[in-house]
Design the sequence.
């Protein structure tokens, strides 16, 4: 099969890009340089405490993030295999479903959501909440991703395919959760990929 099949160039239609027509013609990815990872291999450690397992490379060519439309959509298609998601992150893309298409969308919004810590003002109530809370890493990955994927959340977009893909990446040591616990109860969290 054609490694470029599935990635499509788009024509802007309002703020959403329609991805139909000719293939993008991007070159296959070159082998990625070795990644440095802070975690040392351990025989029976959780995914956060062992060296990540590199999956087979993606069969898809990653498009240039600079091709994003006004909404940040770069391409539609491909799969959610571990190698594809890691290649996308290394390129500056992340997967998110497109409402009107069954294939994953690959996004690179500009600007990204950033919380500048150098100007962070910690209020008294936040300081009290922090004193009552504990931050943990990778102790409840499944619970965090399930809560993030709760369909009752406004503007939720994390579907079963995304959830399963990130669980696979967590088992391989690439996806991690950061959790907030209060009185032994999970009260918040986020998940992401550590690619170096």
Sequence:
């Amino acid at each position: 099969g054609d490694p470029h099949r599935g990635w499509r160039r788009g024509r802007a239609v309002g703020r959403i890009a329609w991805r139909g027509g000719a293939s993008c013609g991007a070159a296959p990815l070159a082998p990625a340089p070795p990644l440095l990872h802070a975690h040392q291999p351990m025989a029976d450690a959780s995914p956060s405490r062992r060296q990540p397992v590199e999956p087979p490379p993606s069969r898809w060519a990653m498009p240039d993030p600079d091709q994003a439309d006004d909404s940040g959509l770069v391409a539609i298609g491909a799969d959610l295999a571990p190698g594809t998601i890691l290649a996308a992150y290394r390129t500056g893309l992340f997967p998110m479903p497109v409402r009107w298409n069954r294939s994953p969308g690959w996004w690179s919004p500009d600007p990204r959501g950033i919380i500048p810590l150098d100007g962070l003002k910690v209020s008294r109530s936040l300081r009290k909440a922090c004193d009552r809370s504990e931050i943990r890493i990778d102790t409840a990955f499944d619970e965090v991703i399930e809560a993030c994927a709760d369909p009752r959340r406004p503007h939720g977009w994390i579907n079963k395919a995304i959830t399963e893909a990130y669980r696979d990446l967590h088992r391989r040591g690439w996806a991690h959760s950061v959790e907030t616990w209060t009185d032994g109860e999970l009260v918040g969290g986020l998940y992401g990929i550590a690619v170096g």
Summary: The chain is about 20% helix and 25% strand.
